[in-house]
Design the sequence.
């Protein structure tokens, strides 16, 4: 069995959305070996930092929260597709040659996987691409950018997927992962009433 | 298959160590539906809040960090033992009738599972109890208190377990879990160089 860790390390100089310092995580010292003979840190991060799972509340005022993620799907059938050829936008047309399995997690490896820093023109899923995905009964859609959409007023891609009951996984590291069939493993934190959680995302071969 | 979620929900009024307000997590609003038409929160928490995994760096200045947790052990053979009879301290004597499996994760259900609030006199593992556990080649030891030891200068229980290569899982919720054999599932966050991580801890029946 091969294990792929799809997770971005959480650290101050990690790529963050729009390179804004306000989006950088902070790991502050609460206690140190030097002073207290024990080490404790305090982490501050926006829940959409690095590799994270979005819940419907992120874009829908009455949407489901992250604590409703079904634990019986924490290890799930997963398809990884190479969509490098889609360029900077995954449209319905980009997707029509793909054979999705109902109920699966689907991860898109795009041009983003070739870039280590935040790219304002990152590849995303367009509104019509998301509407196409929403017809396939997917459990989850994931992408190797910090957001599944960009510059779309009203967030139609998020909304189309959430309306279909599909979870959204962002900030994946897929550069080392060959396209194919896997098991995806995810255990979001149990943050009461929150709209997202940072996660450790892991693939194993079947 | 039965699934048990062993995780304490992360929220402001959760039980925290010594009931200190400084130990309470903060979920602050970065963006709201009312103002920004999107919801984003920023979480601030000490890494030892709620259900969390300790790495050796917590008590050993040169100890291994949380990002070295082996992902090939993220789903692992697990034994849950009822040590309610041990009272407020798990000693070597409390443990001698137990049959540990080498390489397993071992979780202790104690009097702490009967209490919903922080109890300053919580049941812990004594230095000699930890030394006994350290002889059994365990992958992990977990307990239903926020700390595996209390009021022991120099943290000998943590140190004995870490010296044996045993990870420490604290803040478990075991009240609903019958003693027996399970699979434990854990995926700590990839926090660069940190001494711990909050986790979602899950048991499944075999």
Sequence:
């Amino acid at each position: 069995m091969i294990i792929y860790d799809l997770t971005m390390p959480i650290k101050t100089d990690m790529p963050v959305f729009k390179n804004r310092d306000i989006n950088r995580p902070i790991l502050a010292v609460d206690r140190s070996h030097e002073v207290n003979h024990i080490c404790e840190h305090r982490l501050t991060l926006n829940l959409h930092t690095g590799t994270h799972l979005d819940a419907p509340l992120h874009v829908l005022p009455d949407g489901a929260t992250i604590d409703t993620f079904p634990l019986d799907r924490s290890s799930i059938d997963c398809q990884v597709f190479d969509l490098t050829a889609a360029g900077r936008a995954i449209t319905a047309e980009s997707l029509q040659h793909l054979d999705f399995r109902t109920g699966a997690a689907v991860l898109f490896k795009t041009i983003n996987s070739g870039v280590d820093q935040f790219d304002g023109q990152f590849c995303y899923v367009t509104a019509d691409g998301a509407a196409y995905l929403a017809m396939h009964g997917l459990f989850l859609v994931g992408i190797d950018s910090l957001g599944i959409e960009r510059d779309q007023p009203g967030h139609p891609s998020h909304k189309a997927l959430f309306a279909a009951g599909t979870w959204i996984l962002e900030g994946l590291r897929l550069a080392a992962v060959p396209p194919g069939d896997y098991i995806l493993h995810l255990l979001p934190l149990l943050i009461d009433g929150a709209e997202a959680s940072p996660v450790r995302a892991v693939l194993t071969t079947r």
User: Anything to note?
Assistant: The CA atoms of residues 135 and 164 of chain A lie 8 Å apart. Chain A touches chain B through 51 residues (CB under 8 Å). Helices of chain A lie at 33-36, 92-95, 127-134, 156-163.
